[in-house]
Predict the structure.
Amino acid sequence: MSVVRLLLAGLGVAAATAALACTLTGPPETLEQVATLQTARAAHTATTLSSGQVLVVGGMTTSGQSVATVELFDPADDTIRELAGLAEPRVGHTATQLPDGRVLVAGGYAGEYSRSVEVFDPATGRFGRAGPLAQARSGQTATLLPDGRVLFIGGVGPGWTFLDGAELYDPATGVSEPAGSMSVARESHTATLLADGRVLVVGGHRGRRPEQEAHASAELFSPETRRFEPAGALGTPRHKHDAVRLADGRVLIIGGADHSDRVHFATTEIYDPAQGRFEPGPSMANTRYKIAGTSIVLPGGDVLVTSGAQSLELLDVGRWSFRALPGRLPEAYHFAATASLPDGDVLIAGGYSDSNENTAGIWRLRRS
């Protein structure tokens, strides 16, 4: 995600609070608006806690300002309430659930790029300060590694400098150490943990428009060597896309945009770690971009794509094709946040529309 005052310049944020109750004709799903955020926001995070509740953190508000507010959604009765906020506002941050159930919130932007890290403790319902990042950054990716450390990659730093470096953060000590550099600087990229513990970094961009460059390249990070190695190239350079690891270990790259942000993609690509290359995947019915982190692998292995268009789409991995779910959101929301619920339902919260209006809406896709 880019700096709110820059790449999201001109973003107006007005709450879109009209209720939505759309019954999907394809059984057994229904999509409905179930609650309203107290702060209409976009470019925030949503994390499912061990309790099944969803923690909504930060983002940006009506004037494009970063916020420190935090809200908690309870799927038991579809209610939302505000918690004690962050120590500092942030947008373009990451939120990572740790093995012990706490949530690590790192980096972001609020007039300045941040190195700060805060940790949410579900037992107290509050955030506490933790050791800082090695590099101030916003728009980075965060990947929880099998050993419990968190890998931060790329993003943007002071002076709107595009970053090629990575760092490894140890939540046990609060210490973050540099962990090698990529071949190019990247923002709006994806980072996906593979079954063997390596991390696949795909696409992204560097530079400002009109010189902005979207990447086709991909790299693999090894936690053992702390080195990045080439991992082939996409068929189409793209950024502001999404990526998920499928049940068979391959990685699905979804949508995105070209270097101009004017051409949006309905295409997907598949990375096969065994072959070390990308191949075309099935196409969606809708073009989608600004969707990172909003696609979910469902318990049966199918993939739900939730944002960037008014209709949700489901990749049936058995048929290897997408189908658009009949229900529709009021707008094609970008920089929304999604979360899986314990009963298999999916939550979609916030985001902004093509008319640059934020929504406070919270929608629940009921799957049974």
